[in-house]
Specification:
With 182 residues, the chain is mainly α. It is 74% helix and 0% strand. It has nine helices and no strands. The longest helix has 23 residues. The chain is elongated.
């Protein structure tokens, strides 16, 4: 169905229009969402929920869609990408503390959930305060589960440079968190 026909259907019969929209672009939207949600953090149900939200957002902001600026397909892809990135960004504030990073900062033994939460927030706060690319390297390595090779390709760096920066950033993090442990 052409964009003009689909827009008309969405305005005249929203239920049928949304069903048609989902049938026509559901696979594409899901693919875009899945590519932008780290698989280490999000399951299939999360991706499906995000994709459903894309169609809801599109319909609720239908008056903002301008056919002269691009196709419905392109607009849906932009919404899908932004929604997935937003979900990822929000979730990094509550991610569990990876065992690998806990070992790297000194194997802190925690006695309660409150201490776990406090340490998680302290680590994340310190990581967020670091300069780029160290911040991105640590987030990608320890929170998103990416390998040094993947990070190097994404940031256009050598693997050894990523490993060196990781080591130095973790050492800085360890020093800053020494006060927390005392």
């Amino acid at each position: 169905m052409k964009d003009a026909e689909l827009l008309e259907l969405l305005q005249k019969n929203p239920e049928k229009g949304l069903k048609t929209l989902i049938a026509q672009f559901g696979g594409l939207v899901y693919t875009v969402v899945r590519r932008n949600l780290p698989q280490a953090l999000f399951c299939t149900a999360d991706a499906e929920a995000c994709a459903a939200e894309v169609f809801s957002d599109f319909y609720l902001d239908l008056n903002k869609y301008d056919p002269s600026k691009g196709s419905i397909k392109a607009w849906l892809c932009v919404i899908a990408r932004h929604n997935a990135i937003d979900i990822t960004r929000r979730s990094t504030e509550v991610l569990p503390l990876d065992e690998e990073i806990r070992a790297d900062i000194g194997g802190i033994a925690l006695e309660s959930d409150l201490e776990e939460r406090e340490l998680r927030h302290a680590v994340l706060s310190e990581v967020k305060s670091m300069n780029e690319p160290d911040r991105e390297i640590l987030l990608r390595k320890f929170y998103l589960g990416e390998s040094s090779k993947e990070i190097a390709a994404r940031l256009k760096m050598s693997v050894s440079n990523v490993d060196t920066r990781t080591s130095r950033a973790v050492e800085k993090l360890r020093k800053k968190l020494d006060d927390w442990r005392k």
